[in-house]
Amino acid sequence: MRHLLIRSLLALIGFTQAGIRCVAAEPLTVVTDFEGASVRDVEIDQTTRTISCMPGGDPLRGWPCWWYFRVNGVTSGETITVRLRGSTATVQKPGSQPQKPLAAAWAMPAQATFSTDGQVWQHTAKGQRQDESIVYTIKPDATSVFVAWGPPYTPTTAATFVRQMSEKSPHAKALELCRSRGNRPVPMLHVQEGERTKEQRFAVWVQARQHAWESGSSWVAQGFGEWLLSDNPDAAWLRQHAEIYIVPIMDIDNTATGNGGKDAQPQDHNRDWSPQPHWNEIIAAQRMVSGLIEEGRMDVFLDLHNPSPDDPTFFYALQPELLKEPMIGLRDRFIELAYSRISKIKPLIPMSNKPKLIGANYHPLWRQISSHWVCLNGNPHTVSLCLETIWNYQNSTTDGYRAVGANLAAAVREYLAERPLRK
Q1: How far from chain centre, in Å, is Cα 144?
Q2: pLDDT tops 80 at residue 98
Q3: 3-state class of 122 per DSSP?
Q4: Residues with Cβ < 8 Å from 197, sequence gap 6 or more?
Q5: What digits encode the pLDDT tens for the residues 247-294?
Q6: pTM, whole model, 2 decimals?
Q7: Considering only 6-20, 182-196, 367-381, which range has the smallest mean pLDDT?
Q8: Strand 298-305 relative to strand 202-208: parallel, antiparallel, unpaired?
């Protein structure tokens, strides 16, 4: 009883550099009334200032590993604790029966992400595993703090990025790929400079976030676009010799509603590149990419993702026996150039110099995976790859992701500069 009384009194005490002052601590509350928020089974211990929870999201709308919420009632400078458990919801692949819950590791980054303004994101200290949970501590200098699995990138963030780039540069246009099934706009950035006709230009397509929980991939796409519209002479060359499309978020609805997206019903976005796609985003992207293929200039197609918890950055690629030259040699050359740049960036982002080669044994719908579909239906010279950027690492931050995107864009420029120019 004595210990309980002491803990209750401590909850009413605030500490300052000048000494101790008595303040009534506001009760902590968890808020999810904003874009991309997701959490469930919230319990709050007001005495220890601990929030216990698990990822939210509808398991029918994808893996329940994404979590993102705001904590109000914080006393500025106090330490609060978030105790996260893995989701208990059963998950299933489209067309199959529910299986077991998703492995908790997918929801438990070594370091969580937090922000006091929803704009600047930083890592917590390393979380501590305790039985079936992981515990993160946060000491914000504000009375409210956002906490998330990783740095969020919402549809509003995408729209703002595309608009700001178009306002910054006369060579960029803010476009809309389509309206989603949820009637949300899907922002797209279109970039080209100079008087070259489309027949004289290389075509580059960059898309991210076919799986809504993989927020880091959108930051990689943003880094690509920021470099592309920078004052770097190499960026100017790429703008002048290519036509570039960037879609920061493909699965816009699940990103907005805080669902995981991966293995969503009735179809995973990245298994939907079929003769009759289900999702509006895939219908629109497939139509535009098909047009570039028909024009004979689908040069570089990049699909951006985040990988498994223990994977470094790497490329997914089809097994060579499924392709023909010159596609194989051109692809390998692009991977070589991209690895040379990304593996040396600061902040360091670990990257494998060997792509993961996959084929028919990877997934029953392997032909309907976007980068594979483009390989199988593209031009002989098409380079089509999936880049998985590490998320469970100390430099998996907005700066780290954007650095990957910038160096990926520079690799595209270096690669295309080796190719014969179109006349």
Answers
A1: 25
A2: no
A3: strand
A4: none
A5: 999 999 999 999 999 999 999 999 999 999 999 999 999 999 999 999
A6: 0.94
A7: 6-20
A8: parallel
Dist. CA 261–CA 191, nearest whole Å: 28
Give the integer Cα–Cα distance in Å for 57 and 67.
Answer: 8
- DSSP-derived secondary structure letter, 270: G
Residue 201: predicted pLDDT? 98
- The answer to whether residues 353 and 256 belong to one domain is yes
Lookup: tokens for 314 = 């790497």
Cα separation, 240 vs 57, in Å, equals 43
Same domain flag for 126 and 180: no
Range of the domain at 282: 155-417
Check residue 313 and report its DSSP letter.
Answer: B
Among 358, 357, 352, 320, smallest CA distance to 339 is for 352
Separation of alpha carbons 285 and 371, rounded Å: 12
Cβ atoms within 10 Å, residue 29? 14
The answer, yes or no, to whether residue 177 has pLDDT greater than 80, is yes
If DSSP codes are grouped into helix, strand and coil, which group holds residue 50?
strand
If you search the block for the tokens 């509603």, which residue do you land on?
257
C-beta of residue 359 within 8 angstroms of C-beta of residue 367: no
Instruction: Provide, for the chain, the percentages of residues in helix, strand and coil under a 3-state DSSP scheme, each rounded to the nearest 5.
Output: 30, 25, 45
Q: How far apart are the first and last CA of the chain?
A: 85
Mean pLDDT of 72-77: 96
Give the ranges where 152-297 is alpha helix by DSSP (H): 155-168, 215-228, 233-241, 252-257, 280-294
Sheet strand arrangement including 242-247? 172-179, 185-191, 242-247, 202-208, 298-305, 383-388, 314-318, 356-358
Do you find a cis peptide bond into 326, omega within 30 degrees of 0? Answer: yes
Our count of domains for the chain comes to 2
263 and 385 belong to one structural domain: yes
Closest among 265, 259, 256 to 60, alpha carbons compared: 265
Residue 237: other Cβ atoms inside 10 A? 15
